[in-house]
Amino acid sequence: MGRTYLVEESIGQYLTELSTKVKPYVTGLLIGQCSPQRDYVIRAVRTPPKEQQQEESVGPPRLASLDEEWITTHASQVSRMLPGGLLVLGVFMIATPELAKDGQNALRKLIFSVEKSLSKRRLWKPTEEEVSDRAALQICSATKKVVCRTYDVQDPKSSAKPADWKYQSALTASWVALGCTVNVNIHIPLLATSPNHDLEKNTKNGLNRWSKQIEESVFLINGQVKDEDTELLEGQKKFRGNTQPSTQFSDVKVLTQLGHAASARSTATVQVCSGSINLRGAVKCRAYIHGNKPKVKEAIQALKRDIINTLSDRCEILFEDLILNEGPQKKNFGREYHVLPQRLFVPVAGSSVMLSDYKFGDEAAGEIQERFVEMLDQPVQAEDMHIAEDISTVDICPVTESPSDTQQAQLTKATLLLKLQQNMGLVVAAAVAVLASIFSFNYFSD
Length: 446
Prior knowledge:
Layout: E1 4-8, H1 9-19, E2 25-34, E3 39-46, H2 68-80, E4 87-95, H3 100-121, E5 133-140, E6 146-152, E7 161-162, E8 164-168, E9 176-191, H4 199-215, E10 218-221, E11 248-255, E12 268-289, H5 296-326, E13 336-339, E14 342-347, E15 354-359, H6 365-376, E16 386-387, E17 393-397, E18 417-420, E19 427-432, E20 441-445
Transmembrane segments: 424-444
Pfam family, one: ODR4-like
Subcellular location: Membrane
């Protein structure tokens, strides 16, 4: 028996409207949440059209002209805007009858391409019991016939399996929101052997180590430690017949272990470093979980991933901004100040779920609104954008050469400062390098 997809009723209307504009096909993403029993689809988002597509409409329509890179890039951008618990569940295609025959092959290829692109950016690994099926939804623009199949993205040789596509009103009316603020203090050494002080690569390596600490942390839900296999809402009153969006909010505290357990073996490493990166501050995190008897472990896992993703995404956005403004070939940074992106939340129409985005300080509300329309095909009112964090800046100090020295190794005396400060949940990241003598050693526990 195949999987069942419960789909927000408004998505049916959205897909119907898209089908009237098909020339000759349109693709998009399905956004929602997996669970052991069924999957929930709360948004369908068309792929943004490219300007040159209108000029390439000469000749017979062919699915071979699908821009796979454009679609996977869109999926990566959308995934940044999803809070914990939400992910890209699959892809859809609305096509004319003459393209229906090749539709499933095209969808299968897209599903695996999208998953490959998204998995490269993750600092966490899926669990063994996690659902790995992704949906391929095909709709005929003429007959409006809907065909839903799934593919196991963990199996490259996976074949199509049938799935049920069922519409339901007020799908997220009883979902639970979890929120927390996590204090961050991460020290990342920059090895002397690292070429050109590769900040992005070293930062990702440091975040990988930190993500393991988050995975091992203790989570207090409303002040209590709960068994992972118990129901999240156990002991809470349930309001039957409620079809209006209403969020049950759970406040979560994250307790990170300060060191290794007494029984664990600890080793020390000495490395020659040219500097270090310090990420300090606090991150604002949020996750959503379905209301169908969710387990504690499902909720905690969703929040863990939002904690890891939001810090990783901020660093990724920062480096992208530096490359965009300074160019990929720039090796020596002068002292500069950059405004870090603030995390903001926007409600989904008719839902208790809010989507996320990151805003640089100099971005106007209109730019954010344009991005929501382009990436999520959703108009947003300026008053509906809830900024969760205050503006902060990045201070980058250049690496300066010290006077020449004839002693062994001839290491360069350098100071590198990258300060990412955040208040009320925005990450504070700082890169500080101090080399007071010829050699700089970094001592830390694995």
